[in-house]
């Protein structure tokens, strides 16, 4: 059985990827940080097949020990301080985990190595946030980076160091430049889930307003379940490389709000939505739209869930969850 080691296992993508790899017959190992991590017990209940190993992206020896224990064929580095807004207030932590964490994992892979005939393959979760103030539209693997947040800057370092280790040491290391990808497992702090959850709660009379930041920015939103397949496909190639995964469509935050409220039958959404400067960012990424032609051509990857289906899926999930919580 092939063996996979995933950092960020308790996050949205970690869970989707663990399920996907388990379905393909992998032994799945997930890295967990801290003591008594409450997210670990929840994950074990939902996915008992995942073997948890303790480790921290801030601590190289722990990464080496974790790899020695898991003996993986494939490492997926999904762990990060991943929320752009938080990265402004905890910039140093973001640089350390989201940026230097990649370097530590690459060093750990060099040290543990896998076997000579079967070297460890590495996937890095790069991000469309690296494009930031976009230099061209749509964005491809060759578009220059201009990050607009400490998170984006840390991801650029992670991306560049993967390329450098690939070129310097011949590692099988690939980066997926993933545009925003969402789903029912998205954390409530991200805009899609915040909006779908609020629409559900407002329609059930459990909440009366939704307080938002900038409604004008545009994102290329896909479904996380589609994107983890792309990660895996990258590691099945003979040669490591970098690939954009995106839908090629962009929608504004306002369109997201209109559609989510529409799903619960509310047309006069303006009655419920208020803007507050506290949700605006010091620097904004105004427009993202990706060109995934290379992934389509070389990996045969194609997103299956479009924007309307994604919003519908998330609203339906939030309606069911909120009804169950409120005993409705
Ligand atoms: P990001 O693309 O990784 O920053 O993903 P987010 O889901 O956190 O934010 C997407 C966009 O939504 C950004 O342009 C935010 O400024 C915008 N936005 C507007 N209001 C909100 C809000 O209340 N919460 C969040 N998270 N984002 C918001």
UniProtKB/TrEMBL annotation:
An example Gene Ontology molecular-function term: GDP-mannose 4,6-dehydratase activity
Catalytic activity, as annotated: GDP-alpha-D-mannose = GDP-4-dehydro-alpha-D-rhamnose + H2O
Cofactor dependency: NADP(+)
Residues annotated as signal peptide: none
Biological process, per Gene Ontology: 'de novo' GDP-L-fucose biosynthetic process
NAD(P)-binding domain residues: 5-314
Listed EC numbers: 4.2.1.47
Keyword list, A-Z: Lyase, NADP
UniProt xrefs under InterPro entries: GDP_Man_deHydtase, NAD(P)-bd_dom, NAD(P)-bd_dom_sf
Entry function: Catalyzes the conversion of GDP-D-mannose to GDP-4-dehydro-6-deoxy-D-mannose.
PANTHER family: GDP-MANNOSE 4,6 DEHYDRATASE, GDP-MANNOSE 4,6-DEHYDRATASE
Family statement drawn from the similarity comment of this UniProt entry: Belongs to the NAD(P)-dependent epimerase/dehydratase family. GDP-mannose 4,6-dehydratase subfamily.
Alphabetized HAMAP family for the sequence: GDP_Man_dehydratase
Official protein name in the record: GDP-mannose 4,6-dehydratase
Originating species: Ilumatobacter coccineus (strain NBRC 103263 / KCTC 29153 / YM16-304)
């Amino acid at each position: 059985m092939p063996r996979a080691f995933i950092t960020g296992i308790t996050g949205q993508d970690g869970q989707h990827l663990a399920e996907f790899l388990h379905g393909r017959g992998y032994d799945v190992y997930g890295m967990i940080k801290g003591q008594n991590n409450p997210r670990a017990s929840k994950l074990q209940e939902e996915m008992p097949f995942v073997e948890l190993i303790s480790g921290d992206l801030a601590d190289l020896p722990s990464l080496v020990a974790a790899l020695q224990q898991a003996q993986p064929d494939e490492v997926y580095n999904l762990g990060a301080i991943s929320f752009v807004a938080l990265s402004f207030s905890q910039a140093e932590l973001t640089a350390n985990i989201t940026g230097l964490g990649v370097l530590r994992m690459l060093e750990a892979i060099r040290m543990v190595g896998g076997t000579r005939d079967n070297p460890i393959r590495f996937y890095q979760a790069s991000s469309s946030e690296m494009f930031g103030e976009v230099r061209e539209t749509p964005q491809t693997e060759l578009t220059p980076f201009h990050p607009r947040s400490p998170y984006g800057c840390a991801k650029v370092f992670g991306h560049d160091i993967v390329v450098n280790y690939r070129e310097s040491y011949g590692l099988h290391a690939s980066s997926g430049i993933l545009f925003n990808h969402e789903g029912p497992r998205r954390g409530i702090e991200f805009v899609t889930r915040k909006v779908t959850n609020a629409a559900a709660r407002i329609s059930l009379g459990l909440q009366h307003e939704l307080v938002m930041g900038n409604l004008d920015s545009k994102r290329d939103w896909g479904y996380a379940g589609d994107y983890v397949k792309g990660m895996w496909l990258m590691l099945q190639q003979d040669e490591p490389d970098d690939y954009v995964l995106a839908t090629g469509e962009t929608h504004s935050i306002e369109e997201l709000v209109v559609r989510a409220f529409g799903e619960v039958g509310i047309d006069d959404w303006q009655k419920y939505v208020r803007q507050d400067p506290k949700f605006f960012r010091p620097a904004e990424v105004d427009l993202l739209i990706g060109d995934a032609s290379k992934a389509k051509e070389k990996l045969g990857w194609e997103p299956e869930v479009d924007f309307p289906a994604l919003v519908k899926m998330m609203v339906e999930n939030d309606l069911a969850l909120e009804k169950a919580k409120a005993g409705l």
